[in-house]
């Protein structure tokens, strides 16, 4: 297995949180008052938000809606998240 860069590791963690949120969503659709399910969803949502903030700070916006600069369109100034880089 190839060694992942810090950027790739961070992206994989974000993907894992996204998967956990989709699964929790499906569970909560049929168990809407489950406290454990709600806590699980909240925990993974907070973790994903934290990881996305880290990614945005280090590598630029992960999606177009995360472009936070009013001075330039950052989305096109760095490699797209799915492109490999030299880091």
Automatic annotation (TrEMBL):
Keywords: Capsid protein, Virion. Pfam families: CotJB. InterPro entries: CotJB_dom, Spore_coat_assembly_CotJB. Residues 9-83 form the Protein CotJB domain. This is Spore coat protein CotJB.
